[in-house]
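hiii so my PI (J.) wants the whole complex modelled not just the main chain, which honestly fair. so below is everything: two entries, each one labled with what it is. i double checked the lines twice but i was tired so who knows lol
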Amino acid sequence: MKIVVPIKRVIDHNVRVRPTADGTGVDSASVKMAINPFCEIALEEAVRLKERGLASEVLVVTIGTAAAQEQLRGALAVGADRALLIETERALEPLAVARTLARIVEEERPGLALLGKQAIDSDDNQVGQMLAALLGWPQATFASALELEGAKARVTREVDGGMVTLELALPAVVTADLRLNEPRYARLPDIMKAKKKPIERRALEEMALDLPAQTEVLAVETPTPRQRGVILDSVDALIDKLRNVEKVIP
Amino acid sequence: MSSLILIEHHDGRVSPACARVVAAARKIGAPIEALVAGYRVDEVAAQAARLDGVSRVLVADDARYADQLAEPLATLLAAHAKRYGYLLAAASTFGKDVLPRAAALAGVGQISEVIEVVDPATFKRPIHAGALVATVRSDAPLKVLSIRATAFESVGEQAPAPIETVEAQGEALGARFVESHREASERPELTAARVVVSGGRGLGSKQNFSLLEGVAGKLDAAIGASRAAVDAGYVPNELQVGQTGKIVAPDLYIAVGISGAMQHLAGMQGAKVIVAINRDEEAPIFQVADYGLVGDLFELLPELERKL
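here's the output for the full assembly
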């Protein structure tokens, strides 16, 4: 069984992001980029399934500029077998991403599409669910445990107030939450080997997909920061403030 | 063009977030309808009909919705979507699961985690874990919005709106519910509580985490946790506050032994009053706290509990 893992190149989570000078985007000029952490978890899970003999091939795919090859190489270094770059200068909305991925899935016919639950830049949390909808596949979002048994996947989901376990008939879409696994670091020899592996490249524009833009970003701003408050010298002073100034405790 | 709200419900009760989603829909200004899908949900429908601003409730009552699987729910929602200008749900794990699937079936995008309705086509939403706020305009004929409930005040009650039955549709497509584990808690629900007491790695152990119980009990507070505390195994994941956990906006948030990582701040910056108790006066949490106590939490917490 083949597993497709779509990944996204994002600004590294340690970078303090700023709006662009014109205030309509996020300044990504000369900042450190990385594979989105949730995509990393999805990839790790796929590689582990292959190592346990439950998958035959892991295909990692990203949609973006030529620069995203860096993240694909990183994915090859931790165990992906093939990498595909769908090249475009456009920043696609989640539905357009899902439509593009659906085309790839129809061509590749994997038994499982494993994605991160959300990208830490746009924080949309949509692509996996949309991909499942377009393919007519069942879905399990926010997975913290995944077992494959024959033609079925058993998935534990982290939801508000607890855990839910679902069983999905394959092929299916699963999106990874934080506690699905701890991604490994690439070993140096594997990084060197990954440099020699081919990356397949296709132009998005040649795929003849209908990908209209439906939203326009008018502004990106830093939210008004909270004012730094005061350090108090005693519990009594704190209780006084909460009771008599803020009136948030009786 | 009306708005349709997907009602979230558990154990026969409408989720408290729904009253806040109705508030967001009221800001849009279009007539509001609600969709209740579930199995034996008469009482849920009756509660939804009393949400102030809802003009009609549609009910799809069928065993296929008993487990609230995304597959049949999204199909049902998308089938009704054609008649509306807006589809809304809370950005809870339930809403996040169902809504994008319905949007894709309806052939439109979604705007996630809306925190402000600027006008009927323009919305604000946090990006990069709340480090930035984007203002986006949608020209889609159907605007699908997940609502960050904590950013809106709950609506009150009204005389019940009419309730109509609609045909059940949608299949599970090979998904099957196996089981669920809900942590039974004496404490109020985290996202709805007026006071939240959260603990971090500074508490040092699972046993020490119970120190929060005393203060929480005195304040009728929910208990929360930082990701570090969850990762260290002190508490289960459903208590996690932050970018990838729960977003809370209580009147009072007390952060105990929490350093204040960006992703944690993303989950609690909407609180009216923030109190930080931490040994390290350089901890970033003090930059957002209204009041801070610098010192040993193992002395300060019991004292606070005693004096409340």
